[in-house]
């Protein structure tokens, strides 16, 4: 049984501080490797990050692959407004819409997750 329930939410755009997005994914991987209940979702400008790292040629694609079972998807509203919804869906990720078309942070809290943002 997991000791922790952690939701890592990536808001950082890939063309912003890539180290911040990397750190968030590495943090999620650390929790996963420890056997904790961890999930990753991309929101805001972070949807650009998911679209980019889904490309096999991207240096952070290995992290996306290692966390594939933990990535819940990306905010549907944000992905559409950032024009990356098609790329995200084509990569096999889910567009989250549980809060009126957007990803829900409240849902994470209700489910008992501690939210870490990057």
Question: What key phrases describe this protein's structure?
Answer:
118 residues, alpha/beta, Hypothetical Protein Ychn, Chain: A, 5-stranded parallel beta sheet, 41% helix, globular
SSE blueprint and pairings:
Blueprint lengths: L4 E6 L7 H16 L3 E6 L3 H8 L7 H6 L4 E5 H6 L3 H6 L4 E2 L8 H6 L3 E4 L1
Parallel strand pairs: 1-2, 1-5, 2-3, 3-4
Question: Main sheet, how many strands, which sense, barrel?
Answer: 5 strands, parallel
Number of helices: 6
Query: What's the number of structural domains?
Result: 1
User: What is the strand content?
Assistant: 15-25%
Order of helices and strands: EHEHHEHHEHE
Distance between the termini: 26 Å
3D shape: globular
What Rg is obtained from the alpha carbons, in whole angstroms? 13 Å
Describe the structure.
The two termini are 26 Å apart. The protein has a five-stranded parallel β-sheet with strand order 4-3-2-1-5. By secondary structure, it is α/β, with parallel strands linked by helices. It has helices spanning 18-33, 46-53, 61-66, 76-81, 85-90, 105-110, and strands at 5-10, 37-42, 71-75, 95-96, 114-117. The protein is globular. Strand 1, helix 1 and strand 2 (37-42) form a beta-alpha-beta unit. The mean pLDDT is 96.
Quick description:
With 118 residues, the chain is of the alpha/beta class. The protein has six helices and five strands; from the N terminus they run βαβααβααβαβ.
């Amino acid at each position: 049984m997991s000791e922790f329930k952690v939701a890592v939410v990536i808001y950082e755009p890939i063309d912003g501080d890539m180290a911040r997005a990397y750190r968030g994914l590495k943090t999620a991987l650390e929790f996963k490797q420890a056997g904790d209940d961890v999930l990753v979702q991309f929101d805001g400008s972070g949807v650009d990050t998911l679209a980019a790292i889904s490309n096999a040629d991207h240096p952070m694609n290995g992290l996306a692959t290692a966390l594939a079972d933990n990535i819940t998807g990306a905010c549907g509203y944000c992905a559409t407004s950032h024009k990356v919804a098609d790329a995200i869906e084509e990569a096999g990720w889910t567009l989250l819409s549980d809060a009126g078309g957007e990803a829900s942070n409240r849902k994470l809290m209700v489910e008992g997750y501690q939210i870490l943002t990057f």
